Amino acid sequence: LQESNAHERLAPASVTKVMTMLLIMEAVDSGKIAMTDMVTASETAAAKGGSQIYLKAGETMTVSDMLKSIAVSSANDCACAMAEHIAGSEDAFVDQMNQKAAELGMLDTHFVNCTGLDDGENAAQHRTSAHDIALMSRELMKNHPDIQKFTTIWMDTIRDGAFGLSNTNKLVRFYRGCTGLKTGYTSGAGHCLSASAQRDGLSLIAVVLGAESSQERFQACKQLLDYGFANFA
Fold first, then answer.
1. Is 17 considered catalytic here?
2. Which one, of 231, 170, 172, 171, lies nearest residue 202 by Cα?
């Protein structure tokens, strides 16, 4: 409905996790794994930096709590643990991410990890575009609506109430009809956001990459969504 530099290949930071969540939801909805399954954190997963819930190596948690931690708090350690749980290793999971991207026609996209962290020698090759993020966001929201049970949470807890989560996506609380979806930030990528909202049966997705500040990405997505709701039905 509205675009600017939609195919520019940029670093998406944690907005990467839209694809991670999509593959988790596919595994759940196909019966490969269940929300109640226990996932054990490896040393690799526990060692992930950035946003995390401080998993300890050997700690176990349900798929549901891991997914909640990824959706609400962008937990890198949980993303890695889930990748290993589903595919055996993060690298094998990343292959699945790229395969799914190809299936969805995401021609601007190449993933090198499941988190969006700028780590490893291939970090510079981890690229996607606003257009492609919209494609995978649509696939997740449209075909796996149960993800909204997690993406619309404002505040919650895990570990029997011992660890608090609060949503990095402020639109969940402050934008009417917001249904998610995912924030991202690294110094290289800037402030990124894929935001989804629904009003009167119309579902829209706005994607902003490389904003100067957190406030700016929320403002930009809000303006895009406002434009959509005002002009389309």
1. yes
2. 231
